[in-house]
Amino acid sequence: MKDVSFSLLIPAAGLGTRMLSIDKDVPKEMLPVNGKPAIQYTVEEGVDAGIRRIVIVINHSKNIIKDYFEGDEKVISSYPAGSLGIKRLRAECDIRFAYQNEPTGESDAVYIAKNIVGRDNVAVMYPDNIYLPSPGALGSLKRVFIEKNIDVVALMEVTAVNSKGIGNAGRVDLSVVSDDIYRIERFHPKGEGVFVPRFEGELRTCGIAISGPDIFEYIERARRLHNDGEFTDVPVRSLMQKEKGLLGCRLPGMVFDIGNPTGYKQCLDYAGNDRP
Length: 276
Description:
Elements: E1 6-11, E2 32-33, E3 36-37, H1 38-48, E4 53-58, H2 63-69, H3 73-76, H4 80-92, E5 94-99, H5 106-112, H6 114-117, E6 121-125, E7 129-132, H7 137-148, E8 152-157, E9 172-178, E10 181-187, E11 203-211, H8 215-225, H9 234-243, E12 247-250, E13 254-257, H10 261-271
Parallel strand pairs: 1-4, 1-6, 4-5, 8-12
Antiparallel strand pairs: 2-3, 6-11, 7-13, 8-11, 9-10, 10-12
Helix pairs in contact: 1-4, 5-8, 8-9
């Protein structure tokens, strides 16, 4: 692979309405996990994977995220563990911000960063997907991406326990390539309620992926076919899967969806800290 330059895009402009019962004043991306905001885990994933350009897409009601990463001491002081690493992150990577004015979906948020990213390969990680033990998720995907020269999405096992904290999305049909590597054969549409496994050990996709720079072309094409409702990553990934194929990489750790109250509580229990 000739071009091995990467940018990490973090779509963080969503409304996060499911988390209002936890804290109506703090965006879900800034909810604490072991003393640092959830989104810091995502940025640390990028740095651990050797990615030095990070673009965070927010809306104007979430400037607290920008303030935190730009060194606002008042905001930083609320996260004692996070403050220890924020200076290192600011020194080791170029963190930029872009704004999504309307909550039209994750794929539109990713597309907003097109001009900042240029021709980099693109890692995308949703900040409400916390991988523990952290970091390591993006590093695993990056190795597969470089070795196989094909776009790759993270996979996690769904169990009877963790399914209660996972929304009914990310269901795929898979075929085995090798240990922990699968070919994605089909994406299923998002459903209602929680994710109920079809069989023991079922794997689902997470909001963690790495693609080539042509992801923006696929977003443009999928957008022309998707005129109504929230523009998620499913139409984009489905188009990619049909035309050039996609791999899934099973992660060895746990991925928690902290975008809903049950998933957030499960994450805190696993991480070993007190609930807020």
